[in-house]
Structures are given as structure tokens and as C-alpha cells.
Fold this protein.
Amino acid sequence: MKQIVIKDLDDLGRAAAEFIRLTAGNRMFAIRGSMGAGKTTFIKSLCSRLGSVDTVTSPTFTIVNEYSSFIGEKIYHFDFYRIEKVEEIYDFGFEEYIESGNWCFMEWPELVEEALPAEVVRVRLSVEDDMSRRVDIYL
């Protein structure tokens, strides 16, 4: 396990750069954390570091958002919070997204655990007593 501590919002850029460095070679991430732990905020920072030219927003109601980087790479951002049955993810083509080779960041992956590929990197965001965030990366 690798770990990153995010001291505050001003530390997000550094943490995102470190995350990308530590997970080099991987493009699929299942990001867990309680409500308010900072999953979407961290993904926004990751997308920024990857050169996203789009506004990154939570895909809670759309389930997946697609962003483009300045070099034309696609970044997919999933939020499975509203999924009631794992079968729902196949209706919007989940398999094509994860087999694309593009960046995939998934919030609330525990709701679709059985559909996640073995190579997905599992990540947990936790809020510490001092309100910093701890990012645990399971490679």
C-alpha cells in the first residue's frame, strides 16, 4: 500500500501529481470514501493534472462524465452512488469504457464491485482528525 496525505485544498495539486507518479502504468481507479471525504474534489485535481480542458463535475445524475485532455486523451469519471443493481452499468456501456484504455476514475465502486476488472487500482480516501485527507493506494 502507498499513502498520500493531503493537508488542505492548496495541497491538492501536489497530491494529484504524486498520485499519478505512484500509480504510473495504471489508468483505472476505484475510489472509495465516505460522503464528504473529497472523492470528487480529488478527481477534479487529477483531471486537471492530466490536462483536462473540460470543467470537471460530479456525474451523480449522469453516472459517467467524459472529459478531454489538451492532447486529446479521454478521461472517464463515474459515480455509481445512484446505481441500484449492478446490471444498470451495462445499459450505458460500462464495459466499453473500461476496455478503452483511457483514464477511468470511479466513485462509489463498492456498489458495482462484482463488475470491476481485476486490474483496477483500489483507492480509499479518509478524513483525518485534523481534517486532512489520507489517500491509501492499493496497487
